[in-house]
Amino acid sequence: MAKNDSVSLSVVKRLPRYYRFLGEIKKSGTVRISSGELSKRMGFTASQIRQDLNCFGGFGQQGYGYNVEQLYKEIGSILGVNNHLKTVLIGAGNLGHAIASHMSFEARGFNLIGIFDKNEALAGKLVRNIPVRHIDGLYDFCRDNSPAVAVLCIPSDNAKEIVDELVKLGVKGFWNFSHYDIASDYPNVAVENVHLSDSLMTLSYHVSNL
Description:
Layout (H helix, E strand, L loop, with lengths): L8 H19 L4 E2 L1 H8 L3 H9 L11 E2 H12 L5 E6 L3 H9 L7 E8 L8 E2 L2 E5 L3 H8 L3 E4 L3 H13 L4 E4 L5 H4 L4 E4 L2 H13 L2
Parallel strand pairs: 3-4, 3-7, 4-6, 7-8, 8-9
Antiparallel strand pairs: 1-2, 5-6
């Protein structure tokens, strides 16, 4: 499906949740569902759901609702879950190791092909059957394998130099745990920032205000 630049970021950020809920509904054997029934499960209004899906053409039928299997596949196609984007992960410490080991990259459109770290003691160790390589080999590996995405699990003060190199090598997207502001230097690459401490403090706010 062609990229739709007019779709708001808030709609895009809701798509993975639709995909996840529809996957759960599909597993339960449900064949069709109305926007009203979907809204009860997800906490969105039925109107919001219809508006979101209409951004991509709409997939429901009047009086029938949505075919769960079809909608699940359509949203998956929009999200690119079958793209198998070649991906490298930088930083095989505790966070990087956990992400590489437990994240189902393949089910979400990515193919993790390389893991790198500056710690020589980690070189050669297997993480999800992928050998950790020393960071010095990053350039040659990326030149030979052309990854499209990088996962950054490194401190922010180490990130800029690596990002500069990766962008020059053709990396187009970053899943960024480093807190380095990639977008300010490279506005034309795709960046999804993950701030675990921000999320934890947001939880603290909500709990403190119950």
